[in-house]
Request: fold
Amino acid sequence: MQVVEQGSNVLFMDPDPDNAREFFSKKSRAMTDKRMTVKEAVDKFVPDGCFLAVGGFGANRIPTAALHEIVRQKRKNLGFFGHTSTHDFQILCAGRCINRVDAAYIVGLEARGLSPNARRVMESGEVEVTEWTNYALAVRLRAAAEGVSFGIARCMMGTDTFKMSAAKVIECPFTGKKLVALPAIWPDIAIIHVHEADIYGNCHIRGISIADLELARAAKHLVVTTERFVGNHAIRLNPTRTVIPFYLVDAVIEVPYGSYPGNMPYEYFSDEQHLGLWLKVEKDPDEFAKFLDKHIFNVTHFEEYLELCGGIARMKDLRNLEGLVDRL
Reply:
């Protein structure tokens, strides 16, 4: 197979499927009780220097509680999978946790604007970046989930994104036409927030899953935070709803409102006031440091953060907003 052209940037993760297979051959697939606290999960599965991927998309269905704990535990030199990463990337930049990024969409919070602090971090020269498109990153996860060393696409060719990637243009062995080869990626750890799970890690997601099903199958370790636990009988009653099965999961934690201040589809809307406050205080590094002390470093768990942000009254408002209750 002939390589016609290749991007100039670094490939952060090993795309060899046999090396990945060796890891997975030793991973337990047992159906055991995997409940633990967020602190215990971060302690165990997110060491300094590991490569982290986060589920959800934009500010939707993000595992905020786990990200706060990563910052609180002062994790450093993490690699990060930047697949339309908005408030999740903003949180990790607040803790200066990252030193390398596979980036498709970072720094921006969509229509809300750019994160001043994430921008400072990325302009500091402290973070190594390799560029991709969102679709390219999804193809990389799918290749990993399928156990092959690369996936193919027809996007990115002729763009500066390709030049700044670690992809290769190859000649198709059947047609001779050009295709982009996208290397498989097996993140060391993925964290995904879901609507429901049982204690073994069988998960339900309502609404669009983006690339989370591929991510769950590609990640070497998978931590799940869930809005609520359900009994295993609820999983068995409707097995086709189980989009992430227990044997992929290493830890499961119940975290109500765990995507706050992001949106949780069919549960609660995003808190635009609080996301706006993050963007506002980030403009002044001293004020931002005080904000982080108050909201992350000086709280012991995520429930305290929710209380600081208005507590159950505010959560009810966001539930009503998501359900359009005021418009009935």
Q: What stands out?
A: The first helix runs from residue 17 to 25. Residues 14 and 230 are 37 Å apart (CA to CA). The radius of gyration is 20 Å. The chain has a mean pLDDT of 96.
